[in-house]
Amino acid sequence: MTTDYSAKIRDHLIKQRAQASTSGGTCRYRAERNGRTLMCAVGCLIPDERYSGDIEGMALACIEVYKNSTDPLSIRRSTALTTALPVDLNIEEASHWQLYHDGSCSLPVPGTDYDVQRFDYAKWCDSDMPAQSPAAFYNALKIHMANKAGVNHGDA
Questions:
Q1: Domain segments of the chain as ranges
Q2: pLDDT of res. 67
Q3: Containing H/E element for 105?
């Protein structure tokens, strides 16, 4: 049985209902705000004992680029992030969640009036728009990933 990390992320973001970001708005895997430790979409999957400040500022989508770098700092940071993440995590799927948390993520949504829908976590946090919710994003992402894999699961 595989772990549904997307469901864990969805549930975390619904419960937290705040972006993990600095006072200047820069998203982080972990951020302190008003006495709370906030975690981004992917940050919630990183146990405390594996978290390192070295991972801050590194997007999941760049892991492979940094791993193949000749810069020792980039290699150290990518290794820290890779080591912190669950070994069976689908990086592409998690990257979509990171984009959704940090700004916005556009996904194809079959059967709608739009070919692509833009999802924005901050917009949901501020306005409670159901179409922007983590639950709506989760459903769209599951369909998108199944379509990419050539699997027809119907409605996710």
A1: 5-149
A2: 79
A3: strand 105-108
